[in-house]
Specification:
The structure is a single chain. The protein has helices at residues 41-44, 69-77, 86-96, 117-120, 126-132, 141-154, 207-215, 221-230, 233-238, 244-252, 256-280, 290-295, 297-306, 316-320, 344-358, and strands at residues 3-8, 13-18, 24-30, 49-54, 65-66, 103-107, 163-169, 173-179, 182-186, 285-289, 326-327, 336-339. The chain is an alpha/beta fold and 359 residues long. It folds into two domains: 3-107, ATPase, nucleotide binding domain (Nucleotidyltransferase, domain 5), CATH 3.30.420; 156-339, Nucleotidyltransferase, domain 5 (2-Layer Sandwich). A six-stranded mixed β-sheet has the order 3-2-1-4-6-5, sandwiched between helices. A six-stranded mixed β-sheet has the order 9-8-7-10-12-11, sandwiched between helices. A hairpin with a 3-residue loop joins strand 7 (163-169) and strand 8 (173-179). It starts with a strand and ends with a helix.
Length: 359
Amino acid sequence: MNLLVVNSGSSSLKLRILDDADALVDEADVSDWDGDPAPLDDLLGKVEAVVHRVVHGGDHFDGATRVDDAVEAKIEELVPLAPLHQPRALELIRHSRRGELPVIACFDTSFHRTIPAAAATYALPAEWRRRWNLRKFGFHGLSHSYVASRAASLLGLAPGELRLVSCHLGAGASVCAVDRGRSVDTSMGFTPLDGLVMATRSGSVDPGLLVWLQTGGGLTAGEIGDGIEHQAGLLGLSERSGDIREILAGRAGGDERCRLAFDVYVHRLTGEITRMAAALGGLDAIVFTGGVGEHSAQVRAAVCNRLAWLGLELHAEGNDQLVPDSIVSTPTSVIRVCVVTSREDLAMAAQARSLLAAL
């Protein structure tokens, strides 16, 4: 069975056709994607099923699910919690369902269903928590689950033998504490806005500051939402770009705003990694993935140098001259460091095949 794996982002679209052995049959990538589902049309005739990545599954979904009208309606209910991603994924799903092919949804939140209550519960009024199901959901689960397994393989261990922190660093970014194959904490929360500094998203902000922006600053909820979603992060700090490559170039050229943006980014990332290590009760490995994690030697070096007190030793040459899916720590490093190419498509295909076999 050939599967069309559809990975939609807020501004990009990745399409992969995989055969039964996970060999790549065909592919198409659309950068600066405007949400048009038309790129699917050339590939739908070559497959027996379609698999979609959906960012937010809420409490409704704990694994891959075949999409019918009821499932589609549940996905739509969650649009306000992931407004950059959910509407576009939903449009692609609807486009796929116009034919007769089975359509499967895989959710980024599913991997984090194992996070214990102590890590998932917000200290908010009980009535609010019950009324709106306010809790940490976590995101990037498809990526975190795949790279945790792949890193274990690189290290010659079974996933059940490893405590690691997975760092998915792209335009969106999160870290995840993976304890012997299970997510036990992560930096994103109720929405994908929480946690790390991202390209245009603020990450964690004092909630009192956001209240003040309304009561004292006179901003509307819509203006605040747009600001922390689209105008903050690296873009807001540098006043130049949300692209880490532009930040690094500006920093090298003496731009103090870019220097500050880089420093804040690394500071927050390092802090979240150590918080995840505490959730794990120890740390065996760190794995970097995503566009920044895979391609920015400078970010990896800055983070690892700040974690040297943990006994982490980065192999400088290996880090600078990276071979995909490799170990970049020294042989004597107490904590191993891996860089892994994220293959969310493989994780999605595996989930979809298991579901279809059971139907």
